[in-house]
Design a protein that fits this description.
Length: about 70
């Protein structure tokens, strides 16, 4: 089975206050829109700038903040 690519759909969401402080990669592993993606795949997408925070490239260990826009 081939894992879905975020290139096929654009998902945008904002970080809720209770999720503030979580690592970006862990937040996405736990997010329903990325349920079929492995943490390694998510990390690769972050490194290749396919996942942005507030329209900027961030590191996988970036600690998200309340209101950050993830896409």
């Amino acid at each position: 089975n081939k894992l879905p690519s975020l290139h096929t759909q654009e998902i945008v969401f904002f970080v809720a206050p209770e999720l503030s402080g979580k690592r970006l990669d862990i937040l996405l592993v736990d997010h329903e829109s990325c349920a079929e993606l492995t943490r390694a795949r998510i990390q690769n997408l972050i490194h290749s700038a396919d996942i942005l925070v507030n329209d900027e490239v961030k590191k996988t260990g970036y600690r998200v903040r309340d209101g950050d826009k993830i896409r």
